[in-house]
Design goal:
single chain; 3 helices; Ubiquitin-like (UB roll); 19% strand; 5 strands
C-alpha cells in the first residue's frame, strides 16, 4: 500500500481523516499515485493537477524521503521506501509571499 499525506484543505474537501492508503499497480510514480488518488476521491480531480494538462498546480508541491520531487518528471519511479509503504508521499500546499 502506498501512503499519501494530503494538506488539511484537501483532506477536508475529500472528507478524509489522516493518511490515505492507495493500491497502485505497476511502477509507483507521481502519475500513478495521483491517478489512483483521483479515482478513489473524484472530488480531488483538478485540485492537485490541472484538468486538461495534468500538470501539477502552481502552489502544490510533492515530497518523498525528505526530497522535493515537485519538478521531477511525473513518470519517474519514486524511491523504494515510498513504493513499499515505509515512507509516505507528501502533497503539500506551498505558500508564497514576500
Amino acid at each position: 500500500m502506498i501512503r499519501v499525506m494530503l494538506p488539511a484543505h484537501l483532506r477536508t474537501l475529500a472528507r478524509i481523516d489522516g493518511e490515505v492508503q492507495l493500491q497502485v499497480d505497476g511502477q509507483v510514480t507521481q502519475r500513478t499515485i495521483l491517478d489512483a488518488l483521483e479515482v478513489r476521491y473524484p472530488v480531488l480531480r483538478g485540485a492537485v493537477r490541472d484538468y486538461g494538462t495534468l500538470q501539477r498546480r502552481a502552489f502544490v508541491r510533492f515530497f518523498a524521503c525528505e526530497q522535493d520531487l515537485s519538478n521531477d518528471p511525473p513518470d519517474d519511479p519514486l524511491p523504494s521506501a515510498v513504493a513499499s509503504g515505509r515512507e509516505p508521499f507528501l502533497i503539500v500546499g506551498a505558500i508564497a509571499g514576500g
